[in-house]
Specification:
The chain is an alpha+beta fold. Helices cover about 20% and strands about 35% of the residues. The strands form 2 sheets. The chain has an 18-stranded mixed β-sheet that branches. Strands 13-14 form a two-stranded antiparallel ribbon. The chain is globular, with a radius of gyration of 20 Å.
Length: about 375
């Protein structure tokens, strides 16, 4: 069989992320070969990813493998890959919520789902977590609508709002909303004082801690966080301890920059300026200020999956997010991140001894940026 030296791709922005979309039928099925292919396409490992399609930032070093449905309750399958920039590895142990919005658009534009007048529901089956996300895309009877009035922090301009419902995506990594069975847990690491955290597994596995537990004000920009080697070592030590206690030791130690569990440092609302445009974000707009850390660096935004998980956490009485954000839901929460703000509509109810997520929804914008063929550097297919 002839090995092709190129393959078709689509580049799409979804929310504050950008990714390369590939057809499942065009790529290897086994993860080892798929990883080699994605590293080739993105030009990794290399800080600038100069010889590939990567954007030299973890928000733009992402891949989506799209295919036909595998479950009756879905319309399309979607495998996410967080492509390493400095490390020759691809992390498949999480979903990207922002690219899930683009997956809905891709499914319609590629003919996998027929558009309807008004809005078209795309039931996206994320293969990484085996969870279903409902994506409502604005459409005409023939095409996706991308023009609109929604502005999201970290993306210039405006676009048509795409609604994402993550209420079916709970327990994405461990299968349990509260993996430790409690709303607060003390995490001890060698040579450090113990840190009080809340661990919530919603659409992603997230560790919540007060910013002051790491000596931070909570409004630092990502560059400041990334430049503090001792701080990053402390944060990774807490993440590692949680990962090991939750049975993720093999996953953690097989990677140089594991994505999960993510760490979010919390602070009560404060004024700060964004790291992108310098815009003033006033405290009176916010319920929480969040700084997200994973994969060896702080994020310039708040991930879509982390946003909905934080909304869930705000509804769980006794959790750190609930203690800091004031009035419990169901309601719309507004979180401040380094590039602006993001909103989530969340509702969590207690039934007996269990918490149940009734709503966890965000709005994103997305669009197709480019399509064509990517030429490979090596024989990776």
């Amino acid at each position: 069989m002839h090995t092709p030296d190129s393959l078709p791709f689509v580049m799409m922005r979804g929310g504050t992320s950008k990714g390369i979309f590939l057809r499942e039928s065009d790529v290897p099925a086994d993860r080892e070969s798929l990883t080699a292919l994605l590293l080739d396409i993105f030009g990794s490992p290399d800080r600038r990813q100069i010889d590939g399609l990567g954007g030299a930032d973890k928000l733009t070093s992402k891949a989506a493998i799209m295919g036909p449905p595998r479950r009756e309750d879905s319309d399309v399958s979607y495998l996410f890959g967080q492509v390493g920039i400095l490390a020759p590895e691809v992390d498949y142990n999480l979903n990207c919520g922002n690219l899930t919005a683009a997956a809905g658009v891709y499914a319609i534009e590629s003919g996998l789902v027929a558009p309807r007048n008004g809005h078209t529901l795309v039931r996206v089956h994320n293969l990484n977590t085996d969870r279903i996300v409902h994506v409502s895309v604005p459409t005409t009877p023939t095409q996706v609508i991308t023009q609109g009035d929604l502005q999201i922090g970290g993306v210039p301009g405006h676009g048509a709002p795409i609604a994402l419902d993550f209420s079916r995506a709970v327990g994405a990594i461990t299968g349990r909303l509260l993996p430790f069975g409690e709303v607060q847990t003390e995490i001890a690491v060698p040579g450090r004082e113990s840190v009080t955290v809340s661990v919530v597994d919603g659409a992603n596995l997230v560790i919540y801690a007060r910013a002051e537990s790491f000596g931070l004000s909570g409004i630092e920009d990502p560059q400041t966080i990334d430049g503090d080697v001792a701080l990053r070592a402390h944060m990774d030590a807490v993440r590692r301890e949680v990962a090991i206690r939750l049975g993720l030791s093999d996953y953690w130690h097989q990677r140089s920059a594991p994505s999960t569990p993510m760490l979010v440092m919390l602070q009560k609302p404060r004024d700060y300026h964004t790291c992108t445009t310098g815009e003033l974000i006033s405290a009176d707009r916010l319920d929480l200020v969040c700084r997200q850390y994973a994969s060896g660096s702080a994020s310039k935004t708040l991930a879509g999956t982390v946003t909905v998980t934080t909304g869930m956490a705000c509804g769980i009485a006794g959790s750190l997010p609930a203690q800091l954000c004031g009035e419990p839901g169901p309601r719309r929460y507004t979180f401040g991140h380094p590039s602006g703000v993001i909103h989530v509509d969340a509702s969590v109810a207690r039934r007996g001894n269990e918490w149940h997520v009734e709503q966890a929804a965000i709005e994103r914008t997305a669009r197709r940026i480019a399509e064509g063929r990517v030429f490979l550097r090596g024989n990776t297919l």
